[in-house]
Design brief:
By secondary structure, the protein is an alpha/beta fold. The protein has 2 domains: 137 residues, 3-Layer(aba) Sandwich (Rossmann fold); 107 residues, Beta Barrel (OB fold (Dihydrolipoamide Acetyltransferase, E2P)), CATH 2.40.50.1020. It contains 8 helices and 15 strands. A 5-stranded parallel β-sheet has the order 2-1-3-4-5, sandwiched between helices. A 5-stranded antiparallel β-sheet has the order 10-9-8-12-11. α3 links the parallel β3 and β4.
């Protein structure tokens, strides 16, 4: 018979402790030793019971989960699995040799993947490359905002950044799309659906299956055959709206 994984759970919220206990009870290979409701109690129980793994919340009163690990002084450290609702502590957690980081709310399948690593002895800390990757992801989130209203256009040796305000129209062209500005155009290896999801809906409108227009660049809307409209843009480009999208435009044009 395989030796069971002896687990300790620490979380200051009773519902969270109960949920973790219920999930762990579904796995025969796990023996839940005890539960702690704050960081100080967790530290004491870890030193006393010497569990194989500790499922540790981070935001706890008195001593948070990161501080618990920093204060452990044991010859044989338990595997640490942080279970938290906050992802901003991930880098520090892995620097403390955490073997996993469960972001609440997680499900049984996600917990099973963690236990699978533990039973196979795959509890080593993340590599420096992985920590560096997490740091890069953090930096990306921090600097993303200033680029949020720009479209990066890759060229041979650089990226040209086009403001959303300068995008007149985007149209499907074979398996790519062509983005039009006032005086030029760029062929991009994207789908129109990608642009529709990223562009602000109060500035852009998908007029048919093949075209998105910048609303600020519309100069005329011409009544067209088949209950449709021909839309003339300020760079001279013209697109025809579908019947369904023409109904929306009719509502807009009724002052």
């Amino acid at each position: 018979m395989k030796k069971k994984i002896r687990a300790l759970v620490a979380d200051d919220e009773l519902p969270a402790r109960r949920k973790m206990a219920r999930l762990l009870e579904k796995f025969e290979q796990v023996e839940l030793l005890e539960m702690a409701e704050n960081g100080i109690e967790a530290l004491e129980k870890i030193q006393e019971l010497k569990p194989d793994v500790v499922f540790l919340d981070i935001e706890m009163p008195g001593m948070n989960g990161l501080e618990v690990v920093e204060n452990l002084d044991m010859k044989k450290m338990p595997a640490i699995v942080f279970a938290t609702a906050y992802n901003e502590h991930a880098i520090r957690a892995f620097e403390l040799n955490a073997c996993d980081y469960l972001l609440k709310p997680f499900n049984e399948e996600r917990l099973e993947a963690t236990l699978e690593k533990l039973t196979q002895g795959e509890v080593q800390s993340l590599s420096r490359d992985k920590i560096a990757e997490l740091r890069r992801a953090d930096i990306v989130e921090e600097i993303k905002a200033p680029f949020a209203n720009k479209v990066p256009i890759p060229t041979r040796d650089r990226f040209k950044l086009i403001d959303f305000d300068d995008v007149v129209c985007i149209e499907v062209e074979e398996r790519s799309v062509r983005l039009y500005t006032g005086d030029t155009s760029y062929l991009l290896n994207h789908t129109l659906d990608t642009f529709e999801k990223k562009l602000p809906r109060d500035q852009f409108f998908r007029v048919n299956r093949s075209a998105i227009i910048g609303l600020a660049h519309v100069t005329e809307i011409v009544i067209w055959f088949g209950n449709r409209f021909k839309i003339i843009l300020n760079n001279g480009h013209e697109v025809v709206s579908s019947r369904e999208k023409s109904k929306i435009l009719k509502q807009v044009l009724k002052f």
